[in-house]
Write the structure tokens for this entry.
Amino acid sequence: MQAAVSLQSEVERFVSAPVRKMLIDGKWAPNPATGEVLARVAEAGPEDVERAVRAARRAFDDGRWPHTAPPERERFLLKVADLIEAHADELAQLETLDNGKPFMESRHVDIPAAAATFRYYAGWVTKLYGETNPSDEAYFNFTLREPVGVCGQIIPWNFPLLMAAWKLGPALACGNTSVLKPAEQTPLTALRLGELLLEAGLPEGVVNIVPGFGETAGRAIVRHPMVDKIAFTGSTEVGKEIHRETSATLKRVSLELGGKSPNIVFGDADTEAAVQGALLGVFFCAGQVCCAGTRLFVEQKMHDEIAQKLAKSAEGMKQGNPFDPDTRVGPLVSKEQLERVTGYLEIGKKEGAKPLIGGERNTAKGLEKGYFVKPTVFTGVRNDMKIAREEIFGPVVSVIPFKDEHDAVLQGNDTTYGLAAGIWTRDVSKAHRVARALRAGTVWINCYNVFDPAAPFGGYKESGYGRELGRYALDLYTQVKSVWLKV
Ligand code: ADP
């Protein structure tokens, strides 16, 4: 067995500072693997949000960012990507300390993907075109693609640095300024990113990072009349609140919310690949992923075999210290999350679902104080049970049988969400038919949880609206102006 990763001195420096950034009313943020205090971070209140929004407004209105020459903005974003890569070990360590996700995930997924996102949007800076429109020739009519303005960007705790990159990459590429609020559970990598942005030469006020709580700092951003757009990733409940709140100012809104994604295994699938895909689909980041494939639909004749194989593979995943390179499943992010997930486990059992493995908190020696929940595979689940309808956000999968293609689509779509879906089959025509029939923003065929900055991501139904990533994100962060000139 390899030794656990030891912390870099830069990480020690960062977490041991008396208080990170502004201090108004410092809060203690605990370490999810041990329940111990990790770092002290300033809490942004409404006055700080006010300062941050005004700074972002000035930086937008005086043109210091939107009017920078495109190649300069491009160079800046490339530099940020390089800096993230140069500090990859350090950022991955901070992420793992803060969120509890295995270091192998932070180091090999979150951090490289964050760098890749900045690099991808660097490429778009010089490719934002307007159009000449076929108007009456007495006039010349053309469109300008302009930045939206000040963006309030509110992100969750499951992929802290990566979500910051998904927000800042396209916003900055298009010439916007930002007030970014990391989740109260995981502010560290966003704050460290702030230092790197300054190191890369970001002008003052272009990005403001306000660690704070949702109901205070978050709400203040959402309500602020000087904020032109809200980009939010988080729970459907808060997304709906943001939708209501922003009706007062009609600011632009994009929402990436919850999910209860169906992962559908047909009888003709490659069983081993499907089991491994299901495993990744639901236990990656301990299931704290909005697109997790939490409803595993299996064609009836294969149901028992797949469920057993999945349970066996899940049992083989090591749970423990996230810095141990062999660890595959870390703790949940917080005590609240632990309580929420174990609450659902009890509900599931009461509803009659049977845990093939797991079904409880993991209090093995050394893990007692952490927020560990055993990977859980439930069988005996019906699609109308609470555990199959509500987002659990933990390492819990429900295996549900289906009769045929029609039934798979019917049950798969029978959810208020529509973020993602998976299909496992060797039949190409069936794969295409089902991919079209599923009402979800992303469909993975014979794979799961695959991402690329070039591929759009976002939800149908109550999973939100707007598409992040790819060229689609440019629509979120620009608006079109039609200009008429009399010839
Ligand atoms: P979760 O339930 O997974 O923690 P939330 O939707 O509560 O997800 O949180 C996602 C982000 O939204 C966090 O940054 C949080 O602080 C913020 N947030 C929570 N409540 C509000 C609110 N009422 N207004 C604005 N932001 C909020």
